[in-house]
């Protein structure tokens, strides 16, 4: 797979988001299938793996550590702190320096590693100045426990404040044809500061890949059930966009998921999508997107079809929206 720069690292142009192997989209897959996804990803050319303490409250970090630990020299490892207590067993936004430092030690043990290459503040705890939370992560860099610092779901202003405290290597937030919030300000801020942009949910939480055609069939515990875009009239109208998006993918000679990923890669060589999946075949399909070259006409059709004005519904519920610092699209 082609590669891209991520601070001091050279990583595969498409990384693997590991969340769905433990968390968020219904029941996790059986261990055997999770291992097939992770080990198959190494074989497919992925060299960038993304996890977090909150995914399964330790399950995901432990899984990644057990399965990929023996191959630690073959990939760049990212994890995240800030949405659990210091033990990593209770959910709740906590950006206090003492919590972040204690949790890092827990994550190192779970991940079966001596150092985490990229450690994100998963959410900014707005009760704690961003400078204090990032200062704690800078102490972890100095101690050799992490190699670089990232931020997740923050605004351009917060990124600048954090970067003035310690250089930020990467900013991660949701970005896909149907989530354009980064285009408001934070993507430009990343480029201004030389910060890599890591795009999570790059296929629209599975929607643009055709993975959700009937929202009523989402499993109990699937957090998409609480997202406005997957509810009622909004979902019905978004399904109309999906059929048009699938037609564009056919004309481009790729799958809808590959169209999303190739579209992101075409938006800038500083963008690294991290799709997640529980299906080994989908993992390989995503990897192949790195070789898809889209014509300007196809990119223009995607932009005109699925965008901040045509997608119906906010990306988060009001409760979840209150937990993030990202710029909002009109109507959110």
From TrEMBL:
NADP-dependent oxidoreductase domain boundaries: 13-305
InterPro entries for the chain: AKR, Aldo-Keto_reductase, NAD(P)_OxRdtase_dom_sf, NADP_OxRdtase_dom
GO molecular function, one term: oxidoreductase activity
Keywords attached to this entry: Oxidoreductase
Keyword tRNA processing (UniProt): no
Gene Ontology CC: one annotated term: cytoplasm
Gene3D superfamilies in the record: NADP-dependent oxidoreductase domain (3.20.20.100)
One Pfam family of this chain: Aldo_ket_red
PANTHER family for the chain: AFLATOXIN B1 ALDEHYDE REDUCTASE, ALDO-KETO REDUCTASE YAKC [NADP(+)]
Name of the molecule in the record: Aldo/keto reductase
Source species: Phenylobacterium kunshanense
């Amino acid at each position: 797979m082609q590669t891209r720069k991520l601070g001091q690292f050279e990583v595969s142009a498409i990384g693997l988001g590991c969340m769905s192997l433990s968390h968020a989209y219904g029941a996790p897959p059986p261990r055997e299938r999770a291992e097939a996804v992770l080990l198959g990803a190494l074989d497919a050319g992925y060299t960038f793996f993304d996890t977090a303490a909150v995914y399964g409250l330790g399950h995901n970090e432990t899984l990644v550590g057990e399965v990929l630990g023996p191959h630690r020299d073959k990939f760049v490892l990212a994890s995240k702190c800030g949405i659990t207590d210091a033990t990593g067993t209770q959910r709740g936004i906590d950006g206090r320096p003492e919590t972040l430092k204690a949790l890092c030690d827990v994550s190192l043990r779970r991940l079966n590693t001596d150092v985490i290459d990229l450690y994100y503040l998963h959410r900014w705890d707005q009760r704690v100045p961003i400078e204090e939370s990032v200062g704690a992560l800078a102490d972890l860099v100095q101690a050799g426990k992490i190699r670089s610092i990232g931020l997740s779901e923050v605004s351009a202003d917060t990124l600048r404040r954090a970067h003035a405290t310690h250089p930020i290597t990467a900013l991660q937030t949701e970005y896909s044809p149907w989530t354009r919030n980064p285009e408001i300000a934070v993507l430009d801020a990343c480029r201004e500061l030389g910060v890599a942009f890591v795009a999570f949910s790059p296929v629209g939480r599975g929607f643009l890949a055709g993975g959700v055609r009937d929202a009523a069939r989402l499993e109990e515990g699937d957090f998409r059930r609480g997202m406005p875009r997957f509810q009622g009239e909004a979902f019905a109208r978004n399904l109309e966009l999906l059929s048009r998006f699938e037609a564009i993918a056919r004309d481009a000679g790729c799958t809808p998921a590959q169209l999303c990923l190739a579209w992101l890669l075409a938006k800038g060589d500083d963008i690294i999508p991290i799709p997640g999946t529980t299906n080994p075949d989908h993992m390989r399909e995503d990897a192949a997107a790195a070789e898809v070259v889209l014509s300007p006409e196809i990119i223009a059709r995607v932009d005109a079809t699925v965008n901040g004005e045509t997608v119906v519904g906010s990306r988060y519920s009001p409760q979840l929206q209150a937990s993030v610092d990202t710029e909002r699209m009109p109507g959110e």
